User: Which sequence fits this backbone?
């Protein structure tokens, strides 16, 4: 795992945007349409603002990019302002040149939910798999809506939300009673099939989850720890989110060595 500790949330967003742009370029070099895995929540908003800015500045195009979102609530229509369909449209898609038909968010409204989850897996593999999967992390270490206890072999499926997740996400709703009770989420095995993974975390409330993800035992008790099994993962955090890591000095040394070797 590469662990990058930065001084501000803005630096985290800029670094993440560089990684996304790099993944797009690399896919194009192999003459393949780039496929991004995207996340929602407060954390990636800075990344999306940065991507929109780069598009407006004419230095980044999404014209041939395909995207797959991690998850969607069950029980909210796509036009609901707390649905992840709406979030993606408002935070990113309508501001850039991505083609709407190339963007995918799990379908959960007025449909057969298990069939929808299965179809999502098929759609990802037909697109050739995900080049770069962007992730946030829940305060309890969940990724997507893979709640604590999720099988490390899980695929896209229907998942009941924990009380912790519903209470963390209640800030976006009028009351906790309005927070959906379930979601369709990519599974942990689905996420681990991405060719590279970028997890973003900012703020002291993520410090425990980040420490468990990077330095804890691999366990369904902290779903993000499964990322240790993937050969190409970058964890980008600000200092408060890094505050419970034991090996900060080593991660910083590694970044210095990386910079030095790249400059020779
Ligand atoms: C939700 C999403 C996750 C996200 C998490 C943290 O549970 N399903 O993908 O990582 O919230 O969100 P935030 O970035 O707002 O803390």
Assistant:
């Amino acid at each position: 795992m590469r662990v990058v500790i930065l001084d501000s949330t803005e630096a985290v967003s800029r670094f993440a945007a560089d990684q996304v742009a790099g993944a797009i370029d690399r896919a194009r070099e192999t003459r393949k349409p780039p496929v991004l895995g995207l996340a929602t929540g407060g954390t990636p908003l800075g990344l999306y603002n940065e991507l929109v800015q780069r598009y407006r500045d004419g230095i980044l195009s999404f014209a041939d990019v395909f995207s797959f979102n991690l998850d969607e609530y069950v029980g909210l229509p796509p036009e609901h302002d707390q649905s992840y369909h709406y979030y993606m449209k408002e935070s990113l898609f309508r501001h850039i040149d991505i083609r709407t038909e190339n963007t995918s968010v799990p379908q959960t409204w007025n449909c057969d939910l298990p069939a929808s989850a299965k179809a999502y897996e098929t759609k990802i593999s037909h697109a050739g798999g995900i080049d770069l999967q962007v992730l946030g992390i829940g305060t309890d270490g969940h990724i997507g809506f893979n709640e604590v206890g999720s099988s490390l072999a899980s695929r896209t499926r229907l998942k009941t939300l924990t009380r912790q997740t519903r209470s963390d996400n209640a800030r976006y709703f009028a009351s906790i009673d309005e927070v959906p009770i379930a979601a369709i989420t990519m599974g942990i095995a689905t996420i681990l099939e991405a060719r590279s993974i970028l997890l973003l975390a900012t703020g002291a409330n993520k410090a425990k989850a980040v420490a468990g993800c990077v330095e804890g035992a691999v366990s369904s008790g902290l779903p993000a720890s499964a990322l240790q099994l993937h050969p190409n993962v970058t964890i980008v955090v600000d200092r408060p989110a890094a505050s419970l890591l034991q090996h900060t000095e080593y991660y910083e040394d590694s970044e210095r060595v990386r910079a030095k070797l790249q400059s020779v």
User: Anything to note?
Assistant: The mean pLDDT is 97. The pocket of GLP is lined by residues 39-43, 70-71, 136-138, 144-145, 165, 169 (CB under 6 Å). The two ends are 23 Å apart (CA to CA). The chain has one domain: 2-263.
